[in-house]
Amino acid sequence: MPRLTPLTPDTAVGASRDLLADLVSRHGQIGDMVSTMAHSPAVLGGYLQLSRAMGRAKLDRRISERISIAVQAVQGCGLCLDSHVSAARALGVDEEEIGRAHAGTSADPAIAAIITLALQIHREPTSITDAQVIALRAHGYSDRAIADVVGVVALNILTGAFNLLAGLTPGAGLTAGSDTGA
């Protein structure tokens, strides 16, 4: 059961009202995570800005969704995990690779290496080595793509932690998705 009440443009106040009204006018509807984030205009605005910025990431979306699956499997946000699994499927990632991402790896050594980096950023960033970054470059990742991993992880930490705090879980009629959900 949700711990925080979702808001609407009619029930939100100040900057949150404006942000929600803009989202509703552009998308028609908004997800429960976003409408619940409206309790804090700082959190909602920060989420929307980071989400939009990460939409311009250099990292391939099929890879970023696998990173998101790995991070959410650790973090424990079922709503986010379901959203990222659905997105990965829509992008053509097969079920075996989705399962591997859930376990924090990939059959492709280059993707496994970047997922490992993402999980280290999440769990223990001090354990990242120069050799790892050199190996990622050898796999063909640019410095920009490597840096984008931090943004993907940060966005997942924000959304997952928020959903867990708010009590937003899969199946309770809750919606998720990109700028308007999880």
From TrEMBL:
InterPro entries reported in the protein's UniProt record: AhpD-like, AhpD_core, CMD-like
Domain Carboxymuconolactone decarboxylase-like: 45-113
Domain of life: Bacteria
Gene3D superfamilies for this protein: AhpD-like (1.20.1290.10)
NCBIfam families in the record: ahpD_dom (TIGR00778)
PANTHER family tied to this protein: CARBOXYMUCONOLACTONE DECARBOXYLASE-LIKE DOMAIN-CONTAINING PROTEIN (PTHR35446:SF2), SI:CH211-175M2.5 (PTHR35446)
Protein name in UniProt: Alkylhydroperoxidase
